[in-house]
Amino acid sequence: MIQNLLDGVLTGSFLSLGAIGLTLVMHILRFANFSHAELLSIGAYAALVFDRLFEALLPVFAAAFAPLTLTGALVLALLVSMVATGASAVLIDILVFRRIRENGRELSMVFASFGMALVVRNLIGLVFGLHSQLYSPDIAFATVLSFDPLILVKPDQLFVFVAALAIMAVLHLVLTRTTFGFALRAVAENPALAQANGVNLRAMITAVWLIAGALAAAAGVFYGLSHQITPVMGRDLVLPIFAATIVGGIGSVNGALLGGFIVGIATNLSLVILPAGYTPAVPFLMILAVLLVRPNGLFGEARE
Fold first, then answer.
1. Domain spanning 2-168+201-293: which CATH class is it, in words?
2. What is the pLDDT of residues 26-51, one digit of tens each?
3. pLDDT at 294 (0 to 100)
4. Above 80 in pLDDT, residue 300?
5. At what angle are helices 253-269 and 233-248 packed, to 10 degrees?
6. DSSP string, 77-140
């Protein structure tokens, strides 16, 4: 039970990153972007490519930071991947979502996001193959935190947890202590009024896509450090990320953070009473429960 709880907290760290990006897009642009989880795949595979590139060009960065399997090359690749994935999100918006949004067809944007998810997923499979891949072939040995009961944790998992919290803390400061953060919240509440007061609406939308893409890239890389990366990882993560967003409340960054941990913990604790094959249904059941009991989520507010 305690091991499942710990695993749930560690899983929740990267789910929260994905959910924060999704909740920002949903709050600003008012549509459910079902292709958001594919940004995690883009980020994970972009980091894989740049990791191999940096290892070849800069051998000094190929060494791992013991006891982690993380290398200096992968750290650099993570940063580049966040930029590249943010740019990819902006490009997708320019090519697809902006055209539909300017015609005032919000429901069409939802259907378009399904299509984009399929396109991105299959492109990744075409380029990288359908097999799973690892950032490092090294075996990561778990550290024993307790013998009675037996509690194990991998150093990479602790790194993911700490790094995810650090990214969330920086984002929180940006959104609550800067002029940009105030402008972004103004656009979320009333785009027309914010634009009338001098806020560049198009620039804010571009910034939201950049942030969402960067957070998704970090979540994808962190997932890859704890698991394996595959072309269908976005398909497998879309439901938990949406569940975290809905549980926390659409538009609430703090809610998405908490929702990610709630979903991660609930999914891992369900292994105590359910066979592993049934755990993917847990996020869906959580979505149904929240929509029935508290449709606006834990921290969400009703919107007109």
1. mainly alpha
2. 988 888 899 999 999 999 999 999 99
3. 86
4. no
5. 120
6. HHHHHHHHHHHHHHHHIIIIIHHHHTTT-HHHHHHHHHHHHHHHHHHHHHHH-SS-B-S--S--
Q: What is the C-alpha separation between 25 and 275, in angstroms, rounded?
A: 34
Q: What are the DSSP calls for 149-192, one per residue?
A: TEEEE-HHHHHHHHHHHHHHHHHHHHHHHSHHHHHHHHHHH-HH
CA distances from 199 to 167, 194, 205, 206 (A): 26, 5, 11, 13
| Exposed e or buried b per residue across 279-288, where buried means at least 16 C-beta atoms within 10 angstroms of its C-beta | beebbeebbe
Cα(226)–Cα(236) distance, integer angstroms: 15
**Residue 242 or 226, more confident:** 242
pLDDT tens, position by position, 241-291: 999 999 998 888 889 999 999 999 999 888 888 887 888 889 889 989 888
* 251 alpha carbon, distance to own chain's centre: 15
DSSP-derived letter for residue 224 is H
How far apart CA 295 and CA 249 sit, in angstroms, is 8
Q: How far is CA 63 from the centre of its chain?
A: 27
Please say if the pLDDT value at position 301 is more than 70: no
Query: In the structure encoding, which two tokens stand for residue 63, read together?
Result: 């060494």
What b/e sequence results for 50-73 when a residue is b if at least 16 CB atoms lie within 10 Å of its CB, and e otherwise?
bbeebbeeeeebeeeeeebbbbbb
The structure tokens listed for 87 are 């740019």
